[in-house]
Amino acid sequence: MPSLLSDMRRALRLRHYSGRTEEAYLAWVRRFIRFCGMRHPRALGAGDVTGFLSSLAVDAQVSASTQNQALAAIVFLYRDVLSMPVGWLNSLVRAKRGARVPVVLTRDEVRELFARLGRGAGAAGLVIELLYGSGMRLLEALRLRVKDVDFGSNQVTVRGGKGDRDRHTMVPERVRGRLLHHLAEARTQHERDLAAGAGWVELPGALGLKYPNAGREWAWQWVFPAGRAYEHAETGQRRRHHLHETVVQRAFKEALRASGIVKKASCHTLRHSFATHLLETGYDIRTVQELLGHRSVETTMIYTHVLNRGGLGVKSPVDTL
Predict the structure, then answer these.
(1) In the annotation, is 162 catalytic?
(2) Could you tell me if 13 and 146 lie in one domain?
(3) Which of 190, 239, 271, 277 is catalytic?
């Protein structure tokens, strides 16, 4: 199995799947093989896959989207790693995902949430405000490089977002001054790292081979670097990772609890709120689609159902009494 998983990891990277998708697919394949008694996938068939997916739904009680991700990993294994016909896999019925309306905070709730962040939130608080002000996903914000923020045009370039697509969004005026101050402090820290023989950062793809010294340049550093450095096992370089997502998630949860907001909100709720409030303000849905990086406008359309106009703008008869 180790060689099979190594081949699968290589195939995922050749097709530029994200690191998180890579780990998820590998975990599902391991789980599938263990479920089938450690038999090689070439010796398995449709009945084995169906049994595994049924077990996920009945025994593990996973959601439809989780079950579909497991099936996608198995399809990738047979089609792209083992180069086997997958007609029998394509005929399997995928679990139907129920329609869900996203949780959205009102403007007053967002205002109260920000008030509860306080100065103690530090960089995490700045990230949280940037999420609402730009519509970025949490990891998109944390993976920003210095060169991706253009203060001249108040524009952020999101590199390799969901689906490996780039897009532009804005630098909100509210956070501009604090972001400049934060970057000045980060640069001072980077210069101290350089003086200590460190200052390296992970580079995308094979960029480090093409430009050996780029990993120490200020332009390639994370906008939100971690507080501690680490030694990269393969190169021996002293690097900094970006701020870990759990730091931001923890700050968000603490502010949410302190604000008394009872909605089941997360950092991603700020992205939903960003889109909904733009549509409420009157921006057209195509503009919102581009800012969010949705491939299809149909995905963005979900926010038209959560606008503050109960019943799609229909006035309730009780309000006419």
Answers:
(1) yes
(2) no
(3) 271
